[in-house]
Amino acid sequence: MSAHEDGSGDEWSGQSNVRMLAVASATLLLSGLLWFNYSAVLPTIVERWDLSGVHAGVVYGAFQAGYLLAVIPFGAVADRYTSRGVIAVGATGAAAASVAFGVVANGVLVGTALRFLGGVGMAAVYVPGMRFVSEWFDPAHRGTAMGVYVGTFSVSSGLSFALTSLVASGYGWRSGIVVTSLLALCAGPIMFLFGRDNPSRESNKGGFDLSLLRNRSFLAAVGVYSAHNWELFGIRNWLPAFLVSTAAVSATATPVATAGLLAGLVTAVGGVGNLVGGWLSDRVGRLHVIAVALAASGTTTVLLGGLVWESLVVLAGVVLGYGVVLTMDSAPTSTAITLVVDDEQLGTALSLQAFLGTLPGVVSPVLFGAALDAGGYALAMATLGAGALFGVGGVYLLWMTAGTELRTEKQPNVAD
Question: What does residue 320 show for φ and ψ, rounded to 5 degrees?
């Protein structure tokens, strides 16, 4: 019996599901400070280490690579044994690697290695956390719950940009990274002490099931998630540098700090986008929300790189709205995956989603850097926007393979 079948997710207040959502979100809030603290001080690191655009992208991509290498094994462990333990250990390891980056990293090789280790640890936090949340909520409320959880990551990412930039502006880039990393060290103990797995959770004792790779609905959803990440991770890595390049930001007294603060706000409002997207998907349908969000964000990405921005007020207004639509598709896509696979395979399915869907997030920052070197920000931003627009076609494939189930959502386990 799954958590949503025994009624444990029927109520939103005064029940264990709400408390566990709070624990998972607090853990992710602190751990998420690690993901973009490097990006927040990227302009300074590029200057100090004399990095090319490609090398800067490689250091960022190393975090993604470590994440990808470990995400499937950690997801399988979460399915077989416990989500809580996996999350606690991973959060601690990721924070320790990030502290080391801030203290000893001095170039591409050491920086890449430590970011890689941080990504390995983070693989044990984010996706097992989605399984953890899913097992506490039934399908009728799962979109909103996932919106809260995934939205926490956006808020945390925004805080990472803003806090790292703020500390770095006064005490140097190393201090900015160390401060956020020390805060992240609190995440593991929070999950270990206050979290608990749902006693009715479905466990997979048979190991990895290759039938997931024959589930067309699952593969279509992964394709949509891939398009989302192509744009998301590319823009989040390069947004501070892009903002510094605009006339509006470069004319301020402290361009790097202004860009970091604005990028942090843009990323933080992504939490609103996740919450709104998850809430809407419970009411008007997952696929409608996903398609509209991808079309809006992809178009905006292209326009950002192609227009001249001279007014800081106008630029800030546009990118803040952009931050909302940029994440509106994330929670509905992850929720859709929980509805087209068997409950005992949630961790493995979400891990495969993360592995296959995040591969573009490794490539796009590097391609962005190459396009930037070759043709400036207009060309570089277009490489990201095109990916998001391509994802709209993936929504159509998902509609064709699982549209009825995702509209009604009365039977969460859909056989292929």
Answer: -70, -40
Distance CA 32, CA 21 (A): 16
Query: Hey, how many other C-beta atoms are within 10 angstroms of the C-beta on 387?
Result: 24
Domain count, the chain: 1
pLDDT in tens, 241-283: 899 999 999 999 888 778 878 887 887 788 889 889 888 888 8
Instruction: Measure the CA–CA gap between 268 and 320, rounded to whole angstroms.
Output: 9
Provide the strand spans (E) within 86-131.
none
pLDDT in tens, 45-67: 888 898 877 788 788 888 988 98
CATH code: domain of residue 135: 1.20.1250.20
Give start and end residues of each alpha helix (H) in 135-254: 139-171, 173-184, 187-194, 216-245, 247-250
Q: 155 lies in which domain range?
A: 16-193+209-408
d(CA 62, CA 55): 11
Least confident of 141-150, 378-387, 398-407: 398-407
Give a yes or no: residue 199 inside a domain: no
**Nearest-angstrom CA–CA distance, 52 and 270:** 29
Asked if the structure places residue 318 within a domain, the reply is: yes
416 found inside a domain: no
Amino acid at 124: A
d(CA 291, CA 164): 33
Structure token digits, residue 62 = 């190393």
Residue 281: what residue type?
Answer: S
Note whether 240 and 373 are within 8 A (CB): no
Is 179 buried (19+), middle (13-18) or exposed (0-12) by CB count in 10 A? buried
Of 189, 169, 40, nearest in space to 101 by CA: 40
Q: Tokens 């546009």 identify what position? A: 318
Residue type, 26: A
Angle between helices 83-104 and 108-123 (to 10 degrees): 160
Phi, psi (rounded to 5 degrees) for 376: 85, -175
- What is the rounded CA–CA span in Å between residue 150 and residue 324? 13
Inside any domain, residue 4:
no
